[in-house]
Design goal:
mainly beta; twelve-stranded mixed β-sheet; five-stranded mixed β-sheet; 2 helices
Length: about 260
């Protein structure tokens, strides 16, 4: 992505296989909404998905997906998804995909990396993980998930989140971890400070569901975490947090993406 006359456009788009980008659309004049589409709808054992985004200086974008990403069960082979975003100086990125669902018996390595090249980058991102299919009475009893979420600044890590879930792990049921909830989400904000933490926290405390969230400041990365077993409830919290934080972190008022209304 490049900034041309104060408008970000997608340049040098390439794809191999079924993973494609939909034509960007503009709800705001200076930044596009870009949807990453995987037409097969799900990822099977042995598949490898790789997405590389390069944001040139002063470019701006909201990147999302039109539907959930699903990892189907495996008889042995591991599916891999690797997403890497290069964020140059002056860039503003909102990374707000739909949820990623991991079926029972799936075997997955899932990695998301943001490489920030300057301290004046701005980032709001979330990652929503669903384990099993509760509506089908299917728990994540025999799956294996290795998940990592990283933010690097000047090639040095400033946030690393990594976990390994298996069907036999006490992390799935323990009160100090998932507490038997099937959904978890991590939301990240950069660049943040104590004043932004205080303001976002005070606004979130006004919400009835605030007890279901935790928020902390790790260096200059604000981290919000939440658990649930109801997807709509969990998403509503994240969207409210985005509404509150967009003007504080990025400096522009919230404009509700059309894709969230479909």
């Amino acid at each position: 992505m490049v900034n041309r006359w104060n408008k970000t456009v997608v340049k040098d788009k390439k794809h191999f296989g079924p993973l494609v980008l939909q034509r960007p659309y503009y709800q705001e004049e200076d930044r596009p909404t870009i949807l990453v589409i995987h037409p097969p709808g799900g990822v099977v054992a042995g598949d490898q998905l790789s997405l590389n985004v390069d944001m040139q200086p002063d470019s701006k974008a909201l990147i999302s997906t039109p539907a959930a990403t699903k990892f189907y069960r495996s008889l042995g082979k591991t599916a891999c998804q690797t997403q890497t975003v290069e964020v140059s100086g002056g860039c503003e990125l909102e990374w707000l995909p739909q949820e990623t669902l991991f079926f029972d018996r799936s075997s997955v390595k899932n990695s998301l990396v943001f490489n920030l090249h300057d301290t004046n980058c701005r980032l709001i991102a979330w990652d929503i993980v669903g384990l099993g299919r509760p509506a089908m009475q299917e728990a994540f009893e025999n799956g294996q998930l290795v998940q990592s979420l990283t933010i690097n600044l000047h090639e040095e890590p400033i946030f690393i989140d990594r976990f390994v879930f298996s069907g036999q792990s006490e992390l799935l049921s323990s009160p100090f971890s998932l507490d038997a909830q099937t959904l978890m989400a991590t939301m990240l904000f950069y660049h943040a400070d104590k004043n932004i933490l205080k303001e976002i926290r005070s606004l979130l405390l006004e919400e009835a569901w605030s007890v279901s969230c935790g928020i902390s400041l790790v260096d200059e990365v604000l981290v919000l975490r939440t658990l649930d077993s109801d997807l709509d409830d969990l998403k509503s919290r994240l969207i409210r947090a985005w509404e509150i934080s967009r003007s504080l972190v990025i400096g522009v008022p919230p404009v509700y993406p059309r894709i969230w209304k479909t």
